[in-house]
Amino acid sequence: MSSRKYDWIGTLGTIWATAISHLPWRIRLSTTPELLQVRNLKTEFSTDQGAVTAVDEVSFSLAPGETLCLVGESGSGKSVTALSIMGLLADNGRVAGGSIRFEDQDLATLPERRLRAIRGNSIAMIFQEPMTSLNPVLTIGDQLSETMILHLGLTKAQARERVIELLTKVGIPRAAEVVDDYPHRLSGGMRQRAMIAMALSCGPKLIVADEPTTALDVTIQAQILKLIRDLSAETGTAMILITHDLGVVAEMADRVAVMYAGQVVEQADVFTLFDEPKHPYTTALMRSIPHLAGPAGERLTAISGSVPSLAQMPTGCRFHDRCPQAMDRCRDDRPELLQLNGSPDHTVRCWLYDVPVAKVLP
Amino acid sequence: MGSYLIRRLLIGIPVLIGVTLINFLIINLAPGSPADLYLTPTSTSADVARVEAELGLDQPIFVQYFHWLTRLFHGDLGVSFQNRAPVTELIGERLGPTLLLMGTSLVIAYLVAIPIGILAARKKNSATDYSVVGASFLGISVPHFFLGLVLIYVFALELGWLPTGNMITLGRGGGFADRVNHLILPVAVLATATAANMTRYVRSSMIDAFGQDYIRTAKAKGLGRSVITSKHALRNALIPVVTVIGVDLSALIGGAIVTEQIFQWPGIGLLTIQSIGARDYAVLMGINLIAAIAVFGANLLTDIAYAVVDPRVTYA
């Protein structure tokens, strides 16, 4: 009798747990403090053919210290997403909608002056091309100390000391000499190390790395990735890592957002994504990489067709004309980002998973 | 760098000798003779032959050139056929005014062109940019003689603000203000074309620099626009612009000849025109040599400037 009397507590608990697990993602997020929250980002470029949307309805978020990989083919909008966050779009580009919340500010609407105080300071960027990303007529020391003099208020002498420390930390030999060298004296890998030192110099909370190893040769790639991973772990820096290399994703990511034609088509933590890819595009990507353990002479599966041009986006699902599982509705109806039942952190933009229990994200 | 300079200077010697040889041949190809100047209505062909022999013009051209060259190595440019004055002396007294005119024009042209070029590049494809491009095109297209005459007409004749020509007001000593007054119009003419040309170079060079990856890096650091422009973009943009300075200097020497004639500026240019009219080969050869040395020097300075602005360039 007495046990019956308190049954309601158990029932309440069950209801509570169910409610929690079914709450829309947005509300769940608000319980953990997010560092960066990109919501429905839309970036347009004005061209001779009118406004072209390069990035549409892109949403993701990042907790402090977390590494998110943005993965996709060339032209899928990865870099534009990164540049939108940094506010570094080319003159003809602009964020046309959505919000980019970083801590408690919306970077999408923040005036340029306030953005400048954040750039290089709490958000730093590492670019794809170490060969051209450093100014050829300024010394390494000059270029690295500039940021610290600006944001941390160091004197020239203090900044120089810090530069030598940082260069040593990123594994540049003879740092005390390199500080006075011009970039052309350094190899690509060394320059990328210098760029990493520059990004770390003000102790950023977030590093945006846009294909940081693509331009380097393979042996150097692994070193640079390890360096980035070790240093971001050591300093607790969150990172958005842009890549088209699934090997890099597996190595680096906590979470992954797969982009296709300017949209995020699937998002999950790295283990879920590799174990149970849901979106036909993600599955196709997985099949297109060679496996070391696979049979010799194994044929890789290519994805037929090519990424649609920005000016002529297909109606409905943007992947439907290349998708082996396309259905009639894929041609006409645009799929929303759906939350998969049972795994609250796994979202996918595909009609295959449009089952009644799934929830449409706002 | 030192050995490079010595090498360049040594190479310069045969180049300059070659230039004087070609000049000598071209001058002698022109019809007429310096002896024509001494002709009177009663002169006979025997008189002409006597004068030519006196001036050494009866000898074969190569012998004449050889004589000229031998004297040159003794620092002697010969004497003017026209008034028997030493050529070095004639050129010496005209060099100052020309250097004053060209130097002032060059400095003013760059002081105007570089900021305007930067401004146009920063506001690429705006009304400001189009106006700058249009104006510079006009500046390049207008011939020196025409612009000079228009300026004289407007500012000297109609408004009466400035003198029509010469370097000083005769009989009034020529103080600093007087000289500046006389400088304004010829400098305006010479500086216009130079500035117009330079503006276009600076603009395109800056636009190019602004589009580079390292500018994006600088922006990603949070640097302000003025630092990015002056420190990161300009330093790079000046590298191609430096080349133009050498070319500009040569163009300026040509422009000075016409401009000095229009404004009766007592410089090398005016002396050139007078000497051509008088078939004064001796003076012309001297002027050509000075001009060749100036162009050679300008190119050498350009190469040195390269190494100064671009750390990737080293000479060994």
UniProtKB/TrEMBL annotation, chain A:
It is found in: Cell membrane. Signal peptide: none annotated. It comes from Kribbella antibiotica. The keyword Cell membrane applies. GO terms for molecular function: ATP binding; ATP hydrolysis activity. It is a peripheral membrane protein. Belongs to the ABC transporter superfamily. SMART domains: AAA. Gene3D superfamilies: P-loop containing nucleotide triphosphate hydrolases. NCBIfam families: oligo_HPY (TIGR01727). InterPro entries: AAA+_ATPase (IPR003593), ABC_Ni/Peptide_Import (IPR050388), ABC_transporter-like_ATP-bd (IPR003439), ABC_transporter-like_CS (IPR017871), Oligopep_ABC_C (IPR013563), P-loop_NTPase (IPR027417). One of its GO terms (biological process) is peptide transport. Keywords: ATP-binding, Cell membrane, Membrane, Nucleotide-binding, Transport. This is ABC transporter ATP-binding protein. Residues 36-286 form the ABC transporter domain. Its main location: membrane.
Automatic annotation (TrEMBL), chain B:
The chain crosses the membrane at residues 9-30, 99-120, 132-156, 176-196, 237-263, 283-309. GO terms for cellular component: plasma membrane. Gene3D superfamilies: MetI-like. One of its GO terms (biological process) is transmembrane transport. It is found in: Cell membrane. InterPro entries: BPD_transp_1_N (IPR045621), MetI-like (IPR000515), MetI-like_sf (IPR035906). It is a multi-pass membrane protein. Keywords: Cell membrane, Membrane, Transmembrane, Transmembrane helix, Transport. It comes from the Bacteria. Residues 95-302 form the ABC transmembrane type-1 domain. Belongs to the binding-protein-dependent transport system permease family. This is ABC transporter permease. It comes from Kribbella antibiotica.
